[in-house]
Amino acid sequence: MFDPSDRGQFLNLAGIAEGSLIIIAMVAGWWVGVHPLETLRWDGRDVLLGAAAALPIFGLFLLGHRFPVGPLLRIKRFLIEMLGPSLAACRWYDLVLLSLLAGVSEEALFRGFLQRWFEAKLGLAGGLGVASVLFGLAHVITPTYAVLATIAGAYLGALLHITQTPNLLVPIVTHALYDYLAFLVVVRSYRRERQADSDSQTTSSDAEPTDSDA
Fold this sequence. Notes:
Shape: elongated
Helix content: over 70%
Number of helices: 6
Distance between the termini: 46 Å
Number of strands: 0
Structural class: mainly alpha
Order of helices and strands: HHHHHH
Strand content: under 5%
């Protein structure tokens, strides 16, 4: 049985889930002749570009997390209650590795393979649109979350072509950095709520009358 506070179980499950995406991308890409990592190349300027591109979407996430309204509150509760215990059990370097793994695996599948495959069939806009919708459908936590993920997918897909020659490194860095920063926010919120609950229980316990008070 899965224990969300078990660091080892969570990391193993996350590794299997994200690792399987890379395998799917590589096998499917080989089958149709689209190598998922063909456009990946190292460029220091593109790393900085990807890092800078993560800031706007993280800013929007932070805004929605701090001031959740309507369906955003449901998303916040899901992140804190379902992911909070597992993320809080991780070391900081676990979160870095998880973010990198998610960035590489998901971008390899959705941008490196699917987007480029559909672009070859439907053109630039068509490929971007289809890959973004599929990215959103893969993140159906709530309907609103799926819509937001679709928009994020379009943003990441556009980043693939932001350089003169497409470079998968840009959306990978953006995705990974965004995930890492979002993980930190969720962990902080989870720990704050636990501390508040603990303080509340302590206060209630102190307020209860004892036999000597009676």
